[in-house]
Specification:
The chain is mostly helical. It is 39% helix and 0% strand. The protein has one domain (1-38). The mean pLDDT is 87.
Length: 38
């Protein structure tokens, strides 16, 4: 798909840790992260 990229990060020890990382990604990269639980 043109213009789309998939980035995987983690695993994180808790949901809160993942949310903190997602917030940093959102503010620095101007994208909206999507959290998934596996």
């Amino acid at each position: 798909k043109d213009g789309l990229y998939r980035v995987h990060a983690g695993p994180y020890s808790s949901r809160d840790s993942a949310l903190v990382a997602a917030g940093k990604i959102k503010s620095s990269a101007a994208i909206t992260p999507l959290l998934t639980v596996r």
